[in-house]
Design brief:
about 200 residues; alpha+beta; Alpha-Beta Plaits; five-stranded mixed sheet; 10 strands; MecA_C_sf; Neg-reg_MecA; Genetic competence negative regulator
Length: about 200
């Protein structure tokens, strides 16, 4: 579990599927008010306080974004909730109320330390993934290839993940983070562009 402060009232937490499995939580459980999810959230808030000084009190908006290969991103924002709470606790020791929203991203993001690996992966991917796929970013001395997997059938999706995992490492960086803090190298059709130029 990794976390970072986005502003005074907002933090972002990266949860891998391994983090969830260790606690016996499936991603579908994140929707439900069950003790394991509550315990996970309490642990996240304790860690956020100790690492970032982020104190979870009052109303909290919690946005959970699932990524097919990387895990989940949880964005916690302090402030007033606009409408009825979807998710609240009544225990006296809990000082916050939560409104949870879930969304699923189909973006698969992998980071590569060497551009040669990006070239190799692109040449292998073009054999079975539509060439009109991929965006390439540069971020903190690494290359990040992001591919929308929404229209891929299961077998192609598993091939994609296997191949990307062989040369790179899954990352939880979102498109918005990469666009804001990284540099867009190839905005679209990255697989095709890289294959044709290298």
């Amino acid at each position: 579990m990794k976390m970072e402060r986005l502003s005074t009232d907002k933090i972002r937490i990266y949860l891998t599927f391994e983090d969830l499995n260790e606690r016996g939580i499936q991603k579908e459980d994140m929707w439900r008010e069950i003790p394991k999810v509550r315990e996970l959230f309490n642990d996240m808030m304790e860690q956020a306080y100790s690492e970032l000084g982020f104190e979870a009190s009052g109303p909290l908006a919690v946005e959970v974004i699932t990524h097919p290969a990387q895990g989940m991103i949880v964005i916690v924002t302090k402030g007033s909730l606009d409408h009825e709470d979807d998710f609240s606790y009544s225990d006296e020791e809990v000082l916050y109320e939560m409104e949870v929203t879930m969304e699923q991203s189909h973006m698969v993001s992998y980071t590569f330390l060497d551009f040669e690996h990006v070239i190799t992966v692109s040449k292998l991917l073009k054999q079975f993934i539509p060439e009109e796929k991929g965006t390439l970013y540069s971020y903190e001395d690494q290359w990040i290839l992001q591919i929308d997997s929404e229209d891929l059938e299961d077998d192609l999706f598993h091939k994609l993940i296997a191949l990307l995992s062989e040369y790179g490492e899954a990352t939880s960086l979102t498109q918005s983070v990469l666009e804001e803090y990284g540099k867009t190298i190839i905005a679209e059709d990255a697989i095709k562009v890289i294959d044709s130029h290298f």
